[in-house]
Amino acid sequence: MKRWIIFAMVVTLEVAALVWSERHPVEVRVAPAALLYFIADSEWELSRLPMAATRLSDQEEIDIGNQMAANTYLDRAGPGLTPEQKQQNQVVEDYVNRVGAKVAARAHRKLPYKFHYVANMGFVNAFALPGGHVYIGAGLIALMDSEDELAAILGHEIEHIDHYHCAERVQTEQRLRRIPLGELALIPAVVFEAGYNKDQELEADREGTQLAVWAGYSPLGAERMFETFDRLYQEYVRRAKSPEEELSRVAIQTIEGYFRSHPAPSERIEQIRKLIADQHWDLKPERDLEVAYIYWTEHAQQTYEAGHYQEAAGWAKRSLGVKPDLPAALLALGNAQFAQANFSQAASAFGKVLEKTPDDDELVAIYADALAARHTPAQSLQEFEAMLAKHSGLRWRLAAGVELGGLTLAARGEAASEAVLAPLKAGPNADLPPELRGRLGWWYYRTGKVDRAAELLTGAVQEFPTDTKMQLQLGWALVEQHNLESAIQRFETVSTRYSSSEHASPNQRRRLFNERRMGLAVAEWQAQQFDRAVGEFAGASFSQPEWLNPQWVAAVYSPRVAKSIEELKAEQKKRHAIPPARLGTGGGQPRITIEK
Length: 596
What we know:
By secondary structure, this protein is mainly α. The protein has helices spanning 2-23, 33-48, 58-71, 83-104, 138-141, 147-162, 165-177, 190-193, 198-214, 220-238, 249-260, 265-279, 292-305, 309-322, 327-339, 343-356, 361-373, 377-390, 392-395, 398-412, 414-421, 434-446, 450-463, 468-480, 484-493, 506-526, 530-543, 550-556, 559-576, and strands at residues 114-118, 126-129, 133-137. Strands 1-3-2 form a 3-stranded mixed sheet. A hairpin with a 3-residue loop joins strand 2 (126-129) and strand 3. The radius of gyration is 30 Å and the shape is elongated.
């Protein structure tokens, strides 16, 4: 008899699940995954029946959540963070905790709520663990404009804890996977990132918005956050649009997963608007997101790397309007201005960064490059000397001395430059390290003294063959000597896998790769290998638009290189006007692939 009762209950619940699913349609892609989702939901509903009677106590839930949090890998930003990045991450974490504590104070269950910041722009999500731990990703905060939006999202996650959604998920996992009670803490965090059923998500939306309003926030924050979700849903899920310069592939996959496990944004917006009307909430103005400048700076860097230099400068200026001396924003602004051939503005931005970090040899070189690119040798030398005078210790650093020698070479000639460099060579080794001799060789290239440039760069490369930048610079010197066969061989064989910087960023490697391709294009063009040259030129200039800016090219490379690039640009334009069938084979096809 008992078996028949259980059987009847199971059948009844399955029928109820079918009826419920008909009345609550969820928009998903046509795929086998839809069936799996249905089965998972049915299992969840079946297992939920006795949970109220066997619910974990608050202390059990807190203990399990604390153990889960201890096992959760939080540092998703990766290694190699600068002190400034670590400090900014702490600023955001403190801010999230402050806002979260304010919202959590209104929760029904008085649990020890704790808030964690996942410093990864690819993590466009938030989730909660049982017992009070709430996590939010950098990629999600970057979509916000107001503190009220942040409060609404944190309130939503708090309510998943407050209404036992997280605790029930633990019990569901325990029963479906037959996990012993003592091993529940080993349930991975991804189980909680996946979201809950539609009713629970909508409940968390309602109750979370209510918490935020009670804490003094505007309900418009929740509405605008869901409007943002709706825009992302339309762009990246329904239309399968994925522009890499806007969101990384990881971020897009996160968004797609988020929308598969949450109600349609349009439905969430409709619910919030109805709630606002029913509750007669005060539509007070939203308050600014205090940490927005951090994400504006990140946008500036991303848009710069995508080749949208004017937009990058705009984001950087917006950030600097809040934090005028923020080094990362100043650096992004300087890079964007340099790429647009606005060299005076670039030098000003780099100089301000250098004021804060005068011991950064790479930054000293970048600042000197921006000064030299203006083609005002005497003024550039004067400004660099003024910078050295402000930081007495900087003058005696070898790297700064080489930059001073290079600017002196451009302004006063070789004899004056040698006089500046003489004290630097008076050490035990009686010479400069190879990387600095290579840097000095590039200064000789830029002042038209090509034979001396090739001599210095050749010696430096022999001692330091893994420095990609010097290898490429030697290639340019060989082009200037019209030693085209050697130049082509140099550009073809140099590896972009290495660089003088031990922690070269993907953007730095990409730029080295593009310089390698443009070096091949120019050398092959001058060697009358026209089809191959145009192919390399097309790839490099598409990926790095400043190669199409004659002011930028003329400021960095020789007149011979600038002339060849203008000829390549004209040839490419002419070929685009000819039907493809009339072009020679392989005209626009790149011959090399980027090394990762």
